[in-house]
Amino acid sequence: MPSNRSGLRLYLSFSKRLTTPLHAMPLKDLPLDAQPREKLLARGASALSDTELLALLLRTGMAGKGVLQLSQELLDTFDGVAGLLHADAQALQAVKGLGPAKRAELLAVLELARRVLAQQMQQQPAFDRPQAVKEYLQLQLGARKHEVFAVMFLDVQHRLLALEELFRGTLTQTSVYPREVVLRALHHHAAAVVLTHNHPSGVAEPSRADEALTQALKAALALVDIRVLDHIIIGQGQTCSLAERGLI
Predict the structure, then answer these.
(1) Residue spans per domain, the chain
(2) Superfamily per CATH, domain 126-241
(3) Which residue from 136, 127, 120, 151 is spatially nearest to 244, judged by alpha carbons?
(4) Cβ atoms within 10 Å of 58's Cβ, excluding its own
(5) Among 90, 50, 89, 56, which Cα is nearest to 73's?
(6) What does the alpha-carbon distance between residue 150 and residue 181 come to, in Å, rounded to a whole number?
(7) Cα separation of 83 and 81, whole Å?
(8) Tally of CB atoms within 10 A around 16
């Protein structure tokens, strides 16, 4: 009988592994070559799913929930990697299982991503890679719950000098003063600027007011020989370039 019970336990354990989704299994129960760290070292980071990469960052789960399951639930909660990286400290704090250390790690990754893109644009003309500009601004403004108007100040070779948030508003409206934009551009000795603001509603479509504001700022900056290269609107996971629309 003991041997029969032992065989039954082994059978039930094996059956459970076959029917349990991989993300719900503890790491120790996964085959060695399927464990995220070993998989990454053997096949490279691109071989890992979003869930596995996040699990490597978090390292541990919580009582009753493995790290892979916690990672998958995080991605589901924030609608994928992009949503998670745009989450702020308050949103992360509301997630059960994310203690201060894990929240700090996620926020640090986001800040590193911002700095990598900023450094690239400081070292080479920003508009050599327009998509990088959009990604950088999406990381900066995409998670904001209120409307923010910011300006990228560029040198004569269109390298990034600074990004400044100049005005904040409600969810529907921001007051932008051309005089202040001109003064900040002169302060940075900018040769050109990229205007940007977010739409907390999530839809990155320009309004008539956005178009009018762009033209007003373009005229004001032209008086001091500073070009407006673009006005980029940031939505949730999407961007709109007024220059690409022929509106600059």
Answers:
(1) 20-111, 126-241
(2) Cytidine Deaminase, domain 2 (3.40.140.10)
(3) 127
(4) 20
(5) 50
(6) 9
(7) 5
(8) 11
pLDDT of residue 192: 96
CA nearest to 149, candidates 87, 81, 232: 232
The 10 Å CB-count burial string (b at 16+, else e) for 142-177 is: bbbeebbbbbbbbbeebbbbebeebbeeeeeebebe
Neighbours of 192 (CB within 10 A): 21
Low-confidence ranges of the chain (pLDDT < 50): 1-2, 10-23
Count, residues in the chain: 248
- Which pTM does this prediction carry? 0.65
Contact 142, 204 (CB under 8 A): no
With both helix axes pointing from N to C terminus, report the angle between 50-58 and 100-123 in degrees, rounded to the nearest 10: 110
Q: Tokens for 104?
A: 């700090």
CATH of 20-111, one of 2.160.10, 1.10.150, 1.10.3470, 3.40.1000: 1.10.150
Q: How many CB atoms lie within 10 A of CB 242?
A: 19
Q: What is the pLDDT of residue 3?
A: 52
CA distances from 76 to 37, 45, 73, 234, 247 (A): 22, 21, 5, 22, 37
The first and second tokens of residue 82, run together, are 């992009």
The whole-angstrom separation of Cα 70 and Cα 51 is: 9
